[in-house]
Amino acid sequence: MSTSVLPFRRRSPRPAVAPAARAATPSAPRTTCGRLPLVALVALAGACAPDPIAPVASGGGAPPAAVVRRWSDPASWPGRAVPAAGATVVVPAGVELLLDVSPPPLRTLQVDGTLVFADRDLALAADAIRVAGTLRVGTAARPFTQRATITLTGTVADEEALGMASNAIAVASGGTLELHGRPRVAWTRLAATAAAGATELTLERDDVDWTAGDRLVVAATDFDPAQYDEVTVAAVEGRRVRLTAPLRHRHWGELQTIAGRTLDERAEVGLLTRNVTVRGADACAATGYCAQVIAFHGGALRLAGVELTLVGQKGRVARYPVHWHLAREVAGQYVRETSIWRSFNRCVTVHGTHDATVAGNVCHDYLGHGFFLEDGIEVRNTLAGNLGVYGRTPPAGERVLPSDDRPATFWITNPDNVVRGNVAAGSTGWGFWYALPLNPTGASATAGVWPRTTPLGEFRANVAHSNRVGALNVDDGPRPDGTTETAGYAPRQNPAASSPAVTAEFRDFVAWKHRGRAVWLRGRSARLTGAILADNGIGATFASSDTYLEDALLVGESANRATPFPAGFPVRGYEFYDGTVGARRVTFVNYVASARGPASALGFNRTNAFPVSPLNSAEGIRLENANAVWLLAPHPERDGDKAAVFLDRDGSVSGAQERYVVADVSILLSGACVRRPEWNAHVCAERYGRLSVNGAPAPGEAVGETVAPADLVRDDGVTLRLAGSGNRVTALSMSVLLGRRYRVATPAALVRPRVALTGVRPGETVRLALPYAGAAFAAWRDGDPSRRLTPAATLAELDASPGDRYHHAGGVLHLKLVVQPGRDAASVAVDPR
Q: What's the pLDDT at 65?
């Protein structure tokens, strides 16, 4: 998604400057130099003045040490004049410059040598800074302990002159940016609920090093992500933090023990203040054209304990607060324990970059996606222990991607990364979004990488709450044009080829306070294991196959009840959809109907037009103060609603093993069913399969023949009107009782029907009658044209057959679908001759 990047454009050529002459002994410094041309560029040239710190020649032919200068020393500069306001300054290669004063605002600063901040309070301002050498404020071993502020003052008017480097610290190939502020507690949680109007917080930790004047953010703990508070510390006494002004919102701060597990919905509290700051000028807030830090291939970026505020450039590609841009392998580089707030474009972007570490950061009040893996090529990066608070939807026309209208705190485009222990504490969109392209897009576009089939690296112990759309979305992958499409995640051993599936485990996820659905997974072979999902309108829905919720705790309503669910909304823990999916060893607590509306542990995705598997199942279900099931009355135009059945494998839902829970639809019911009014459903001692009828297209045509709307008629005359699977007129799908006879009355006689019975065991069968127009045709079963069906003279002969016959008479084609040994489906295809 990023554009090509140009280096700084200089208004006049940079003069060639010889390196400083080396004296044979310390007593013989060079003190004169030739005349320099008058240029706009102020070059730091050691050849033009005595060395304030003269290097000593080393024995044995060792290379000389770098020339070391002090910014404050006029002798360090051509003409013995320290750069004035508006100067364009270059620190040449081979020169180490100690910034020991706060210079006046510069036009640009180019560091080809080394620029080191002295250990004192300092401020540096420039329209832009380019680092091809080293810019250092502290080190990992010796963090900076004073106050350092770098202010970037470039404006939109500088775009043409400075390119992407405008209002930026740009780290070029060979450059190193080292900013290490004082280590501090980045974030913690409350230990007691703080009411709106309170002027004190009680923290989980008693070792915070926060002090008077520090700025904090307290995350929302209700459904609305905007219910955060920015506060200023007045004093700290152990766990108690006194504030300079009262809180605007209530923030939950209690641990709850439910069904033997701990539910933690306590507010996160993040530190925004750091002693090393990179920021935009105050005026940039009016335009959204603020500061950025960008590292290119061959550059090195290491930030720890830094504050970045008034950062990012609104609506502009590749103008992010912190950004590895097509940097490739960057092992050993990191952004850690850093606060990024008041951002006009994301937080941290990892683009075309691998092996980066983004850990322990606080990102607050940002536009669009927050922690952002851009193209889908990025692998082996680690996002760990980060906190995101309040991601905002950019205004229309100012979105970098269309998906920014549902901003994700963590936007992951390749699953082969580590995402561990992060918190998405309130966004107007998603908490975590695995937005997997078919192949990488943008500047990394390639057909050789397959994110949608790549095994999952690690997703463990992450938390999402108070997001307006949801907590975790594994779907909606980017197209090359930046829009998204339905995208199933189906990892396999070899992502580039047909190979065995591998399981993707999303482990120990915690999601709470979402008015709608918390978790949506689309694809195949996934597990949501060890999750705690609480206070969500819907806990989880899987539009998947071979995907299960396992060893989880789902809580309908906890003690954290500031705002109720909307009236009439049917709160549900786990929803069946597609299939085969299910819930195993899951405890459901506090799913009880009230004056607000119905509630249940289990249910189905509502107003569903698509097929569901009759093998969707539940087992090992525990219910505490919970209604097991509530199935809404089917929508007449949604065939998936009418087909709603699931298997209670062990009786933990219905009280008897291998029973089906079935929607209140007459064609699904028999004398072996018992109505459960509190479920608006039935429990049936029957077996069910999924019957589908599709119209195949004629040769040269793209659309199949019409089969819907249609009536499905059972052998006892019970009839159901079907609207069409997925509301398409070329497909029908419905759950049916096995061992029964059905007739399908389509709008017209069929020519190329394809019928199937799925979700069944060997030997199970259904007989089907279809209106058929042709006289001469070929029919075969189970997708094998060599397995031709032969005509049966009578229906009795057909019924006695093992599924290798058909009967055609009076314009009706009769088929017997029989599941063969070793199979779980039966099918028949018919084509005219």
A: 58
